[in-house]
Amino acid sequence: MRKERTLTALLLAALLLVLAACGNDKEAEGGSSSSADSGKQENVELRMMWWGSQSRHDATLKVIELFEQKNPHVKINAEYLGADGYWDKLNTLVAGGNAPDLIQLGNNYPDYVSRGTLLDITPYIGNQIDLSGFDEAIATSGKLNGSQYGVNLGSNALGIVYNTELIKKAGMEPPKEGWTWEEMEAYGKQLVDKLGKGYYAFADQSAFTHYVGNYVRENGKSLFNGTEIGFDESIAKSWFEMWDRFRKEGIIPPAEKAAAYLEIAPDNSMLVEGKIAMSIIWSNQFVAFQNAMQDELKIVPLPGGGSQKGMWIQPSQFLAIGKDSKHPEEAAQFIDFFVNDPEATAILGSDRGIPGNKSVREVLKANADPVLLKTYEYMDVAVNYAREMDQEMPNIADWDAALRNAAQKVAFGKSTYDEAAAETVKAAQDAVKKSQK
Amino acid sequence: MNVYSRRTAWLVHAFILALGLLMLYPILWLISSSFKPDSLIFSDLRLWPAEVTLDNYVTGWSGLSKVTFGRYLLNSIVLCLLTVVGNVASCSMAAYAFGRLNFSLKKVWFALMMVTIMLPHHVTIIPQYILFHKLDWIDTLGPLTLPKLLATDAFFIFLMIQFIRGLPRELDESATIDGCGPIQIYWRMILPLALPALITTAIFTFIWTWDDFFSQLLYLNSPGKYTVPLGLRLFLDSSSQSNWGPMLAMSVVSLVPSLIIFFSLQKYFVEGISTTGIKG
Amino acid sequence: MNQAAKPNRMRNYFIGLWKKNAVPYLFLLPWFLGLFVLTLGPMISSLYLSFTDYDLLSPARWAGTANYEKMLNEDARYAQSLKVTLTYVFVSVPLKLAFALAVAMLLNKGLRALHIYRTLYYIPTLLGGSVAIAVMWRQMFGADGLLNGFLYSAFGIEAPDWVSNPKYALYSIIALTVWQFGSSMIIFLAGLKQIPPELYEAAEVDGAGKARRFLSITFPMLSPVMFFNLVIQLIGSFQAFTQAFIISRGTGGPIDSTLFYTLYLYQKGFSQFEMGYASAMAWVLLIIIGFFTAIVFGTSRYWVHYGDGGRS
């Protein structure tokens, strides 16, 4: 009896050991294989991380393969995922000391610069990385405090997309570029009158951070001027006032309806459902919105009419190098290949926005399908309404949450314009202050 | 066990069905959307598709240049089976000790076990990642399966404790008189009698692992090792293009294994104790 | 003589200790390994981090009790998240358990095609955090949703948008939670299966009515499982995250009306780079959950009956 018990115990213990060892046997695989191979060229292994959907993954993988063919000593391990969880994973990897060599970032890259995650790539510019084919503004868009931290992969501009079928149904002319806020409001009123109950002219985008940015810029101000916030409560107040007027006029949906839709992606959009005629989007989302609906979409610039041009060309994505990368030179080479090589850029297309390299842009535009062509044509128009961009507000996620709250409080009649304006300004100040600690 | 009379049975059926339809609605939406072209999924929300297409299934299944969706399914199945075995074995052992045996510091350990499920996991993610990184286990199944073998899902320990404590103690006593030690009692009596709890554990472990996006996202880096939750998200990118159709189509496909597991295991609830019997 | 007996007594004591503990601790061995190697370390480091200023990407800096002070004194959103979560816990837990138990008892009878119904009822749970849920919820409870369509055509009532009105949004998430009752139902079903049918047969022979059978057989026999479901639902609801995340797209809106505790914790830790603060939030939540769980454990002696005769 006792013997049997001991035996079972021993067996259990042995089983555990075996199982624990099982988990271990893949350890060797993870190790770096960067041992020198006799000659001068060391074998190099890089890790690259990006987010995207199917077509982007396919294209990026092909480009990696192409680069590996041309540089047989470099191997690039791709770690790609959807947009969900990308930042969580990236943050965890960085916190865990396991950051990839090549990192795709969005316009939030200053948050990573200020926390010391990215390598200063200034030394590689003009050497491994050639940005001479880029427009000046695009080439320097990865610069912060005099150092370059990333290379722009694509640019964007805000635009108003409109559903041509709804406008036809209302028997109206499509909106024209160069319109003012007043014209836009009048247009909206007429549109809802003709379309009748259940339809709205615009989405409620009073909580869209960069739309606010456009508005304050038209009035000669900025969200962030590089050291502190560049707008005040009075302008924030007039913003909330204006949207509330739109709401009362019925040209945007009532608070309840609007709150059910974030209107930032096609799966959660009244524009796509055909209930509203116009909405602000980033130009690189145009194809996605168009593919999600049958009515034809077109795009025009944002309303103007202030003392200055409000719009700007927004660098939307960057490729950067992790600070602890062991092979920054090869990584820099890859970045150059990614943005300049004719073959590579042809494969990548315009999926990450309009490329910065002028000759690449021309080739892609010539080969664009009709939907994509509209994006290219729009960018040419948008440039005329744009001026130099301001530096992105640090910790913009903090401000984004606060702005949404303030805007919704106004919408639901839970706060006055003054309160909402004060809240918005305070939140922006806090976000900036946090980055300067 | 009492059985309904025929008339009440009909009424009960009708009621269950009506309620069931409410349960079914999202899955019907999912299935119907998976046959719609992208341009109709969110613009025409009606259940009956105006246009039917199989494209979503074809593109979804073909996956990305090197890896098909079948690979993700296979990876997920392997992972889920490992976690099921790990959880059932290790949690039932711990539960037997807590539920039936006497030992020093029992209350302290039990309390500590409960505390481990009270801390939101978001704040232990990073320290845990650092730990597995130090062990050099990133991009292996280790971080996803080893914790299960070591009974870190206290939820299931607690579940089985409650079931084991529900079994009459006289059974153990008579077994002890027959000369069985604790190990035999565990193996020959407790495990068979706690079968409903073991099956519950198996079902939940399978389904929760099948759906668990975040830890698989963190610990798996090579696309060849990706699992279903990661594969589904590869279709989506809210900042530009999303392939909703293929995503929904593969969501439907990925429900099938969970449904099979659930459907085939749940019959043990029906048989449960009555067929396993109390053989003593 | 005394001196000789002492080591002997010591020895006997240790032998006794060994005899009592060897086998139980052997059974607990995997769990101990997991606890000490995998679970406790990360828990303790999160406790340490809660006293630091930690932005994930650069090293943590000691901050004393600053996080805790800010949380309890200054942060209005924190207070809001606590309020939302407490409301959620105290409304959703009883509702969900009652519903799950009722359906489990309904499905535990000798009806035909039961396995199909059981699967049917588990489907909402299977879908978990799928996008289909968010879309469906809007279609059911939105301004132009099925429910309002019914209310309007049947009673002429123009009802609000249940999903996105700040007054009702939390309750629509509670409804969603109750609707995903599958897991609790399964546990109840498994528990019901463990009750020997002979007990009911004997009671029926004794002429016991339905209510009586429930009170004297089902309830006591099922009480360990009820206790489990109660404790687990309590802990789980305090940590509720997924439902709020999919319905509000992680915003907790409108106007923070669905800002659950862990949703805010996640926003702080991962999107706003304040992991120190998030860790402090987590430990305060642990204390809150611990408090309520202890109360439930305290009451268990009065209503939970174990087959082993124990009562706690």
From TrEMBL, chain A:
Sorted UniProt keywords: Signal
Stored SUPFAM superfamilies: Periplasmic binding protein-like II (SSF53850)
Residue ranges that the Swiss-Prot or TrEMBL entry lists as coiled coil: none
Pfam families on file: SBP_bac_8
Signal sequence residues: 1-20
InterPro entries, per database record: Bact_solute-bd_prot1, SBP
Transmembrane regions: none
Identification of the protein by name: Sugar ABC transporter substrate-binding protein
Species for this entry: Cohnella thailandensis
TrEMBL record, chain B:
Superkingdom, taxonomy of origin: Bacteria
PROSITE patterns assigned: ABC_TM1 (PS50928)
Domain (ABC transmembrane type-1): residue spans on this chain: 73-265
Keyword Ion transport applies: no
GO annotations of cellular component type: plasma membrane
Gene Ontology BP terms: transmembrane transport
Membrane topology of the entry: Multi-pass membrane protein
Record keywords: Cell membrane, Membrane, Transmembrane, Transmembrane helix, Transport
Subcellular location: Cell membrane
Listed transmembrane segments: 12-31, 72-96, 108-132, 144-164, 185-210, 244-265
Cell wall biogenesis/degradation found in the keyword field: no
Main location: membrane
Family: Belongs to the binding-protein-dependent transport system permease family.
Protein name (database record): Carbohydrate ABC transporter permease
